[in-house]
Give the backbone structure.
Amino acid sequence: MSENITNVPVETTYDESQIQVLEGLEAVRKRPGMYIGSTTSRGLHHLVYEIVDNAIDEALAGYCKEIKVNIKEDNSITVLDDGRGIPVGIQSQTGLPAVEVVFTVLHAGGKFGGGGYKVSGGLHGVGASVVNALSEFLEVEVYDGENIHYQKYIRGEKQENLKVIGKTDKTGTFVHFKPDAEIFEELVYDFEILHKRLREQAFLNAGVKIILKDERPNEKGVLREEVLHYEGGIREFVQYLNRHKTPIHDEVIYVNSVRENSEAEVALQYNDGYTEDIQSFANNINTTEGGTHETGFRAALTKVINDYARKYKMIKENDENLKGEDVREGLACIISVKVTEAQFEGQTKTKLGNSEMRTIVEKMLNEKLSEFMEENPSVAKIIVEKALTASRAREAAKRARENTRRKSALESSTLPGKLADCSSRDTEFTEIYIVEGDSAGGSAKQGRDRRFQAILPLWGKMLNVEKSQIDKVFGNEKLLPVITAIGAGIGSDFDVSKIRYGKVVIMADADVDGAHIRTLLLTFFFRYMQPLIEEGHVYIAQPPLYKVYKGKKVIYAYNDDDLKEALAEIPDASIQRYKGLGEMNPEQLWETTMDPEKRVMLRVDLEDARRADETFTILMGDKVEPRRDFIEEYSKTVVNLDI
């Protein structure tokens, strides 16, 4: 029972004594999440991005060609660029060297006018000072072509005045910092996370070389280094997106436009897949929520392809136009714009708001993509035919969807015949187990708690949706029961608020076939019910691998480590290795895998949708080589694959 909060004493005085003024960088250390999002691994890596972004801004201004990023053995970071170097002269407003101002004063930098930068990303000028505030120490060296200037800070406080420590004929900036253990929950840098972000920056800034080096030896004592350098810019970015897919035309289509204060470029190439991969950027910032530049692109792409198809009678006079989703099926595309006064919606900078960018991108594509299609009729024909095929599949899916709706209005009589439903309708507690095989399904039905646990047995392997258009999904006898039981629709019609169960639990054997079924189901949920994963409704059951017993003493072991511990606890015990869920009787299945008090389940999270998209393409797509490489790479480090 909750306490009566009206009886809790509260402070009734609110006056000037309760107003705090945080000096210098105190505010950043007090509320770091306001400046870098979080103090988890995400925030830790964000520190590197802020310093690298300053170097990228120098590249955008035309002064930086090479950026070196090193992860040191102690998980500190160094970033060296060959730009102009942060100014070291006295800044008039503060009377301090400009470099000191940049690292100690919030909202200070060369990005607020004055001609320092025409375009920039960064964090409204607070990047360097925030990194300084959240670091155990930070050292900066500035090379101005004559002298090496040096200053050191500890937790944002300068330890000495800026001083000259040597001579040089180079220009640039060197920053060395170590994240503060008092601030961050995680202090170990992930090479792959940094690699992905820096590769992205190298693609977006054609010709800039970014070198990422890990000075922490791996288990074989090897140091890893990646050189990221793409003269082709976003053309090569698109080729990278399609590397695990099969393009249906050789050339990456590229168009660009330069106006007074804005630039826009688009690169695109179609593949034989069924999903779209459109990534948009503004001033090198990934606008994951889209914005005006992406809206302009989508509108123009649909218009250009429809106009071409109408002109050459590929769409009949009385037929409807192609929809946007038709012309984007199998599309890999990068949209990159540079604008002097970028307007981002929200603090996270994930949506571009500049209205003029829609006009610029839309006009550019209308003119230049139309011109490309006229000059390359063979490619244009391939693209239009791809869209027409997608349109026919969409119409077939629409008919199948309507048929499914008529058959399943969520009354109990229209639910799948094999579904053993639960009595409760409260999604706060209800859960459905999608179980591999009739035998295991039978045990689960007998062992479950009928009040809140529903069981849906599946038999045989289901459709690989990665290789199938949506109309095939609706016609698949293995997937239809899943769609109907969950009850929230599919694809663009999916409404997570209508799900019939709060937990959707995949329960398959702990073997290769079981892993395949889990992957097939997860691929389906990711492609057609993604909010189900995003909002944490999908789980994977963890049945035990072994039963260790002697007399009346029984221990269930879920992996080999558990087995060792169990054998240490029960010497000379017998061991039963479960080959499948069907070998367990209802009581054992309840006790080990379904009892909320004792079971072990993994919740499927979706932290990085693009990384997940890529993984599903590798595992379930047509190309064999990427899948083999993936398996060979991870088989070196993974002994037991329990997912």
About this structure: Residues 488 and 496 are 6 Å apart (CA to CA). The chain has 20 helices and 24 strands. The chain has three domains: 26-229, 234-396, 409-543+600-609. The longest helix spans residues 377-407.
